[in-house]
């Protein structure tokens, strides 16, 4: 005797066929978080065939190298508390309609990275019981990379690739506020290319640009990931060093000065020495609540000014700027280690 097909089974079969032909990459989990639908668009997006995941909980392998929850898993488990740790950008739909998120996925099968916009929502029966979770995916990689490129252009100096002045000012405000909260030291290096106008006049603006690029590259190579190096303006640079004691900042400044000496960028202008050198002013503050970051900048600027007027090609601490200011000192040959003025 042939079994009569129930209307609900017909509807379910139709829904599955419909999802298979959707142009939107889609997969469906049952309440046990097993894959019951993995449509053709999802196969194309991930490179993973439906046969590899249907009936399993291995759908995560299509998107990540290590086992972790996908968005549909969080819906099935009602774990909205994990959204923040797993997805940098997310929203929770109202009325229990699911979650939306964006995330970089490593796509192990394809060997590339995609930035995916993800929506996952539950399907309940008439009694409110969960019967499935549907996850849909949109490839937003091109848009995300374009957005990142625009942000980089807006925050970077076009010549050196370092942070620009606006970006540096924002970083200073953030790190100053953090240092106030944590009572930790914040150090600032202000760096100036000695006799740069003479260099430009002698070698031309193209060579001048090359010189600044070389200085910027040396700075970027010699700093920690947490430090912020910026082109502060013209031939002047700045380095912001969070959680850095004064002695550490002085050591970094000296290494930077020596790195430029080792580049041996020929200068040759009268009274400028044979090679390009740097003058660096260093200041450190553990900011109190009533202090402004302007104080840190002013003290580093004062140290830089004193360094340039006491012979150039040297590192000078803000603590000793006043005591040495005005004392003319001969410039040692580039490459010779200076005694730091603390």
Automatic annotation (TrEMBL):
Domain annotation PAC: ranges: 99-152
UniProt enzyme class: transferase
Catalyzed reaction equations: 2 GTP = 3',3'-c-di-GMP + 2 diphosphate
BP term (GO), one: negative regulation of bacterial-type flagellum-dependent cell motility
EC number: 2.7.7.65
Gene Ontology terms for molecular function: diguanylate cyclase activity
GO cellular component assignments: plasma membrane
InterPro entries hit by this protein: Diguanylate_Cyclase, GGDEF_dom, Nucleotide_cyclase, PAS, PAS-assoc_C, PAS-like_dom_sf, Rev_trsase/Diguanyl_cyclase
PAS domain sequence ranges: 11-55
Pfam families per the UniProt record, alphabetical: GGDEF (PF00990), PAS_9 (PF13426)
Top-level division of the source organism's lineage: Bacteria
Record-annotated GGDEF domain positions: 184-320
Alphabetized NCBIfam families for the sequence: GGDEF
Protein name, as recorded: diguanylate cyclase
């Amino acid at each position: 005797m042939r079994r009569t097909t129930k209307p609900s089974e017909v509807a379910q079969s139709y829904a599955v066929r419909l999802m298979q032909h959707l142009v939107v990459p889609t997969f469906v989990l049952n309440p046990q978080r097993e894959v019951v639908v993995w449509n053709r668009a999802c196969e194309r997006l991930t490179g993973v065939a439906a046969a590899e995941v249907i009936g399993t909980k291995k759908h995560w392998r299509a998107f990540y190298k290590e086992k972790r929850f996908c968005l549909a898993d969080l819906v099935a488990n009602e774990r909205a508390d994990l959204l923040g740790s797993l997805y940098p950008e997310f929203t929770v739909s109202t009325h229990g309609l699911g979650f939306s998120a964006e995330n970089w996925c490593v796509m192990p099968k394809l060997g590339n990275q995609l930035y995916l916009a993800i929506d996952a929502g539950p399907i309940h029966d008439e009694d409110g019981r969960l019967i499935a979770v549907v996850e849909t995916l949109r490839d937003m990689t091109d848009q995300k990379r374009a957005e990142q490129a625009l942000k980089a252009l807006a925050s970077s100096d076009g010549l050196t690739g370092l942070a620009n002045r606006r970006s540096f000012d924002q970083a200073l405000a953030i790190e100053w506020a953090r240092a106030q909260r944590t009572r930790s030291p914040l150090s600032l290096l202000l760096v100036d290319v000695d006799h740069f106008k003479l260099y430009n006049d002698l070698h031309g603006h193209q060579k001048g640009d090359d010189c600044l690029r070389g200085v910027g590259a040396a700075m970027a190579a010699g700093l920690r990931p947490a430090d912020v190096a910026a082109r502060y303006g013209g031939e002047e640079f700045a380095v912001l060093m969070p959680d850095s004691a004064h002695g550490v900042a002085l050591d970094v400044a000296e290494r930077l000065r020596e790195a430029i000496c080792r580049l041996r960028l020929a200068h040759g202008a009268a009274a400028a020495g044979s090679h390009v050198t740097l003058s660096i002013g260093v200041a450190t503050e553990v900011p109190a609540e009533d202090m402004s970051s302007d104080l840190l900048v002013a003290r580093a600027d004062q140290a830089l000014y004193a360094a340039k007027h006491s012979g150039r090609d040297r590192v000078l601490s803000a603590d000793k700027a006043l005591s040495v200011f005005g004392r003319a000192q001969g410039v040692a040959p580039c490459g010779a280690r200076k005694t730091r003025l603390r």
